[in-house]
Amino acid sequence: MAQLSDQLFVVSLFCHLVAMIGYAAAYAVNVRAPHRRLLTVGAAGDPATSGDTVGPVTREAAPVQRWAGGVAVVATIAAALAQAGALTTRGLAAERVPWGNMYEFILAVTLAGVLAWLAVLRQRPELQPLGLYVATSTLILLGLAGLRVYTPAGPLVPALNSTWLKIHVSTAALASGVFLLGFVTATAYLIAVRPARPGGLVSTLARRLPAPAALERLTFRLHAFAFPIWTFAVIAGAIWAEASWGRYWGWDPKETWAFISWVSYAAYLHARATASVRRTTTAWLAIAGWATMMFNLFAVNLVIAGLHSYAGA
Amino acid sequence: MSTEDRETVTGSGAAPAGVAEAEPPAAGGPTGGAQPSRVRRTPPPLALLRNSWRQLTSMRTALILLFLLALAAIPGSVLPQRNINIENVNRYAVEHPDLFPILDRIGGFDVYASPWFSAIYVLLFTSLVGCIVPRLRDHVRALRAVPPPAPKRLDRLPRHAVLTDSDGDLDRIAAVLRKRRWRVVVRGDSLSAEKGYLKETGNLLFHLSLIGVLLGIGLGSWYGWHGNRLLVAGPDNAFCNNLQQYAESKLGHRVDSSDLPPFCLELADFEATFLPTGQPSSFLATTVVEQGDQRPFRASFSVNDPLRLDGASVYLLGHGYAPILRYTDRNGESLESDDAFLTIDGNLTSEGVAAFPDVNLDPVTGARNPDLQVAFEGLYFPTAPDAPPFVRSTYPAERSPAVMLFAYRGNLGLDAGIPGSVYRLDQRQVSSGKLKQIGEGKLLRPGEKWTLDDGTSVEFVGTRQYITISVRYDPGERIVLISSVLLLVGLMPSLFGRRRRIWFRVSPAPVDATTTGRSSLVEVGGLPRTEYAGFADEFDRLVTATRPERAGGDGARDDERDDDERDEAPRPGGARPDGARPGGATEEGTD
After folding, report:
1. What is the distance in angstroms between the Cα of A154 and the nearest Cα belonging to chain B?
2. Where are the membrane-spanning stretches (chain B) (predicted)?
């Protein structure tokens, strides 16, 4: 079973890679018409809409784009299934919830991110060009998980043997996954609002992205969705810490960084609600928030020792 | 605080609150008539004070303080902290002798108790209070007030519609809106409705809960206490809850050592199970508790499952072995030691000292001979390797226990009054020659005896288990927990709620419109007071639902749906140009 889990992990890596290439191909042939939303068609597309596109999009490009995009979305779904399978079989192999170490946690986070992405894509097929960024970030994280922090399936130490593991870690992973997607949309927004400079890489990337306002609003939605979940995860962690270590808060490095992330995202939400703060500034705050999440995941787990040091266990 | 209202305060610098600013005079109360007072001059010191206060409670300051708070928390995760791990701090002091005093002076090793960290959160909370108190007042007023009258020009609002086919029956429209939980008031020929008060309620609840969390933390640090110690199994090693019994303890500012609740604890049994790999799989400590007048009772606890007593909880932190060594001196007297050996690795290799200062006494006077004191320093292996070198245990459970002892005789240096580790011999005594090693090290298995050069002997009798525990009391916990739950409850409507207003005005129909057979024209205006991309859809649905033909069954059909799915969908007429700031644009309509 543990072996099957590892194989499924490789399958999901491969699928993400295919998805990334597909998204990239679709991205390459897609050019956003000025002040018009190009309706890119996903797996279950509506061919009628593609005829509406005007402006710099050549009519020959549309089928290629549709085809590549379709492959990408199907590959993303396959990757999500494989990843869910990898986690499930790992849970079965170890007879516990499959988020007991860093490797499994990253798998769970990226799975949450990919599922959130598929949910967004279902509602707004026109955001499909973002898939390139989603697939790239996911692939990087999964690659790091597989190469750097791989841990064989095994039972948990008694300290982790608690109902709160199920609640605290699963919600933390879910919130992190949605924050990951929020990071992707915030980055895409910052790229999209860059003033057009002919020949520049960023403006080339920008021209192929959905409208900035839509990206910005989606960024806010994702963060507004993830923030209460993250808050809950921190509270659940505090309740667990009380039962396990005797205090609900002790400034353990992991706790500290969870707090830093919480404050960063709170700052993002406050800035977002303030009319006089520029939207590019708020997007940067979202990215700073994700930076703290990444520091918490990698630096705190692998470099700074603390009570949460279960990375290798 | 998290809305654009706060920004309006600093932005304009005139009206006391953004909420009131948008409010027409009728509902504004005292704030509505603020206009003339602006002419009055304020004495400079007062003006400075007022401006500083405004500056402090402004959103910009709050954002900067939030950012600083995040930044200030970082050093505490990078540098070792006294309240978390004092040994690491001491090690840091040794490793960085130049840097340590500087960092220490600025509070680098007590970040979360340092003046600068405290300053940031105190300022942040002051700013928060300064912001939510006026808003609380405004919100209470808004909750009790009726929606404001319709503005003159409804066509200037973000959403606007003209119904030529309406019957102009405002009471009927009011009923439709009330059914959708709008707060409605009809004034003559116009109707005002508002919805989404819960957003601000949630927002205020969230921020008030933060204050609750802070109060709970404060209460805990004032009235809480904790003590850590090691507890060896057996009735002789039982301890009672008082300060002297703890190896390390901390009392809150308002706690006196006599306030500790009386109870006694004896470790009756400790059971640890391990996987074949040596990874622990379960711990269970069984204790005998004596509390107050109750009869002693047995209670078990474990990791993640503390022992809850009246006024304190006992947490299991660790465990290990205490070898029982029996030393028989020159007079034939036997003494036993069961001092705990500290574990140094995952297989529970343990190191420690068994000291016998009161042996080889003068047979006549009973006086202590400082040169004939005996101590054994050594390692304990729950599972000793089959062959030398005996330096490491190979498994954490006692499969083949053995102790590796090094004997010392001489002056242990215990009388000097210098505090030293009880797990190591005083090396100064060894290097000065006052304490001499006798022979080589010796491996003893249970029951084995080692006779030293002077005829005295030491026997490895067996082991006792020990646990390390933390005994804690924090009266603020409950407040923090309740506040956290309220915080979460407030967060949802604060993030997902939407305040919006809608107005209907009936006017006599123009002459050329009489062809419809109606006698009135209804104008509708909508104003989202917070960012709400789906407002256009809701507005359209409401307008449709209030049409007389569909007021009955159909109105119920497209019931209030806060769905956001269609927000991004292109819609005719209602779309804002890309890049517009919905939050900023919305309030302009009332001017």
Report:
1. 10
2. 62-79, 116-134, 204-225
Rank A155-164, A174-183, B188-197, B377-386 by mean pLDDT and report only the highest. A174-183
Q: Using CA coordinates, name the residue in chain B closest to A165.
A: B304
CB-facing half-sphere around the CA of A295: CA atoms within 13 A: 18
The residue ranking higher by pLDDT, B450 or B559, is: B450
User: Is the residue at A281 inside a domain?
Assistant: no
Q: Does B315 touch chain A (CB under 8 A)?
A: yes
What are the structure tokens assigned to B352, written together?
């420690």
Say if A58 falls within a structural domain: yes
Residue, of B17 and B358, whose pLDDT is higher: B358
Q: How confident is the model at residue B444 (pLDDT cuts 50, 70, 90)?
A: very high
Tokens of B287: 């204790």
CB atoms within 10 A of CB B180: 17
Greater model confidence, B551 or B349: B349
B488 to A213: CB separation less than 8 angstroms, yes or no = no
What is the separation, in whole angstroms, between the first and last Cα of chain A?
19
Q: Give the structural domain span for A51.
A: 2-224
Residue type, B354: A
DSSP code, position B383: B
For residue A187, the distance in angstroms to the closest alpha carbon of chain B comes to: 16
Query: Given a cut of 90, is residue A293 above it in pLDDT?
Result: yes
Task: Find the mean pLDDT for residues B529-538.
Answer: 85
| Beta-carbon separation of A304 and B78 below 8 A | yes
Tokens standing for residue B237? 């090693």
Q: Measured between alpha carbons, how far is A80 from B343 in angstroms, rounded to an integer?
A: 44
Q: Are B531 and B549 in contact (CB under 8 A)?
A: no
Closest CA to B536 of B505, B565, B567, B561: B567
Taking an 8 Å cut-off on Cβ atoms, the answer to whether A227 and B491 are in contact is: yes
**Per the structure block, which two tokens stand in for B185?**
């008031």
pLDDT class of B372 with cuts at 50, 70, 90: confident
Q: Does B571 touch chain A (CB under 8 A)?
A: no
Is a pLDDT exceeding 80 seen at residue B130? Answer: yes
The verdict on B247 touching A (C-beta cutoff 8 Å) is: no
Question: What is the rounded distance in angstroms from the CA atom of residue B335 to the CA atom of residue A155?
Answer: 44
CB contact under 8 A, B281 and A155: yes
User: Hey, is A214 helix, strand or coil?
Assistant: helix
Distance CA A41, CA A39 (A): 6
Domain membership flag for residue A72: yes
Q: CA-nearest residue of chain A to B492? A: A228
Q: Are B453 and B438 in contact (CB under 8 A)?
A: yes
Give the residue from chain B lying closest to A244, CA to CA. Answer: B304
Residue with tokens 């593991």: A165
Q: Residue A77 falls within a domain, yes or no? A: yes
- Asked if A251 and B280 come within 8 Å (Cβ–Cβ), the reply is no
CB contact under 8 A, B579 and A212: yes
Q: Is B563 on the interface with A (CB under 8 A)?
A: no
The reply to whether ipTM tops 0.85 is yes
Q: Are A300 and A259 in contact (CB under 8 A)?
A: no
Does the pTM surpass 0.80? The reply is yes
**Is residue B554 very low, low, confident or very high in pLDDT (cuts 50, 70, 90)?**
very low
Least confident stretch, A187-196, B140-149, B233-242: A187-196
Model pLDDT for residues B2-59, shown as the tens digit of each residue: 444 443 333 333 333 333 333 333 333 333 334 444 556 777 888 888 888 888 888 8
Q: Which of A214, A243, A263 sits opposite B568 (nearest CB)?
A: A214
Could you say which DSSP state residue B202 is in? H
The number of distinct structural domains making up chain A is 1
Q: How far is A311 from chain B (nearest CA, A)?
A: 15
* Exposed/middle/buried for residue A6 (C-beta within 10 Å: 0-12, 13-18, 19+): middle
Mutation test of the interface with chain B: which of A274, A277, A303, A308, choosing the one with the most B Cβ atoms within 10 A? A274
A-chain CB neighbours of B81 within 8 Å are: 251
